Amino acid sequence: EKFEETAIIIRQEEIADDIYSMWLHTDQIAAHAKAGQFVSVYCNDGSRLLPRPISICEIDKKDGAIRLVYRVAGKGTAEFSGMHTGAQLRIVGPLGNGFPKKEKKAFLIGGGIGIPPMLQLAKELNCEKQIVLGFRDELFLMDEFKKQGKVYVATEDGSAGTEGNVLDAIRENGLDAEIIYACGPMPMLRALKEYAEKNHIECWISMEERMACGIGACLACVCQSKEKDAHSNVKNKRICKEGPVFRAEEVEF
Ligand code: FES
After folding, report:
1. Does pTM surpass 0.90?
2. Which of 31, 62, 132, 248 is the most buried (most CB within 10 A)?
3. 213 CA to centre of ligand 1 in angstroms
4. Interface confidence (ipTM) of the complex
5. What is the per-residue pLDDT across 173-201, written as a single tens digit (0 to 9) for each?
6. Which CATH number belongs to the domain containing residue 194 in this structure?
7. Are residues 75 and 132 in the same domain?
8. Residue 92 Cα, ligand 1 centroid: separation in angstroms?
9. Domain range holding 67?
């Protein structure tokens, strides 16, 4: 079930270079959302008709609020980043399928702007959690994640934690898990898919990075699945409609 609402900005701040955190008051979306889902945010500037899909970083059901943490990557997100407390935004959601939740020793892995949705998942999961976050250089959301479990960091420039990527951090710390939940750039997801296959670990990935409109209109998010149709043609999946979360082995990318 999805809802279209006029959400009101409770507060917004820049938490790292070009990365903004926005708390929004919503009636229905906060009440129905779960970890791994996203909302489509419409621009008030009528010249940009397609919305921007932004994943949900935190959900506060008690106060009817959601937190979006996003990177300014174009005119739409630049417009959002300039808005202040009390401003209104048209949003549709919650969209997408979200992460399954299993009681297994877990890796929660986020890379770059794929980090925010892992926070709500960490809050919802009831299991042993090892949170592995890969940043370019500047860290963000660290205090929030540290409340949810043990956090391991990798940075490309080695300025914090392990120098390298999330798999380097896993190896350097000698970690293991029975299940992987991950969101981040495609090369990271590809490496995790391979790592999970080799080590026989259940692996769930959010491919939200590949989304453009988030509402099934642009087809920029089509990927091939392992499924075949009745004529043995490969079945395509739209990440924004059938995802963004997939079992890693079910998709080709
Ligand atoms: Fe546009 Fe899926 S993101 S169709």
Report:
1. yes
2. 132
3. 5
4. 0.99
5. 999 999 999 999 999 999 999 999 999 99
6. 3.40.50.80
7. no
8. 14
9. 3-95
